[in-house]
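So, can you check?
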Amino acid sequence: MTARMFPVADRHRDRVYVITGGAKGIGRACAERFAAEGAQVMIADIDPAGADLAETLGGVFHRTDMADPDQVRDLAAGTVERFGRIDIWHNNAFSAVFKPIHEQTLDEFDRITGIGIRGYWMGAKVAVEQMRRQGGRGVIVNTASVQSFVGERGFSAYQATKGAVLALTRSLALDHAPDIRSVAIAPGLIATDAIGDIPEDVIEEVLAGIPAGRAARPEEVAALAAFIASEEADYMSGTAVILDGAYLAIG
């Protein structure tokens, strides 16, 4: 039986939520969840499908390449111009290739880390700058991964970004406590289109090691993000919340 996700009505009413990589997968589910809870949603992505989603949700789409600092600044400025403020900034965009390191190219590494390290840092920077201008309150959510904690063959560049995400999350929390919180979400295998880029034998290997017996649904990540960003989680900062079906519990 598929579990149902129950949005909490009005929990994020009139709060402004920015989601990067928001056109599909985890990002799409998060945009839908926050909109259902009353947030005004800014969807950032290089995928034009984000425009259709924004129209459906009554939000705004901003085409943004998170590897380009100028575009990240434009995203923040565009959000403030449209909504007047930024309350929640969710760094979620990513790039990855499945290759052993000796087959990866420097261009691939630069693209992956440009989004997953520099893009996250830049996103947090512009969000914090705006949050301070508007009085200092706000939440930074960073999508990390179980690969922040354990290795997986073929993902060296991607894993480097996810390890960095944890360090960034902790530093942000310390720099801006008690007013601006920073929390990472560390999902395991997620049932999204991105799975199609991973060889089937690797997926089967990972699934075999998940005690829950399945991949997570994007909606489950979105439900967690909505809780983390809410006042109910006001004492949560500088940490990562793992959502992995007990994958890491095996040790």
